[in-house]
Amino acid sequence: MELFSEAWARAYCEKLSQSEAYRKAAATWEGSLALSVRPDPGAGLPQGVAVVLDLWHGACRGARVVEGEAEADFVIEADLATWQEVLEGRLEPLTALMRGFLELKKGSLAALAPYAQAAQELVKVAREVA
């Protein structure tokens, strides 16, 4: 399944909603999250692409793929190679954020901090789909 495709986004959303660990970790989370890929004409992404997840109290209510700039409460952006490393388990997301490989384009790190476990579960489920 192609990463950041409509099929991948749907499968990811479904798996998130089925994950008991994610449900517990994100029980109080309310808001949308975009996983955004920077434009890369060489990879066939001249405008970039993002998966926008509608997350609510430990469930994914929907997912969509958008080209270009993503609108969400929180937007995390990286190049495709970095996302692949994260989703293959070769790069931890918190490390990637701190080192600047992943960039929080919208939203506050302080607002995300209480949801560190939920973030780990988001990545764990994404790795199962990838």
Automatic annotation (TrEMBL):
<dbReference type="InterPro" id="IPR036527">
    <property type="entry name" value="SCP2_sterol-bd_dom_sf"/>
</dbReference>
<protein>
    <submittedName>
        <fullName>Fis family transcriptional regulator</fullName>
    </submittedName>
</protein>
<dbReference type="Pfam" id="PF02036">
    <property type="entry name" value="SCP2"/>
</dbReference>
<feature type="domain" description="SCP2">
    <location>
        <begin position="15"/>
        <end position="105"/>
    </location>
</feature>
<dbReference type="InterPro" id="IPR003033">
    <property type="entry name" value="SCP2_sterol-bd_dom"/>
</dbReference>
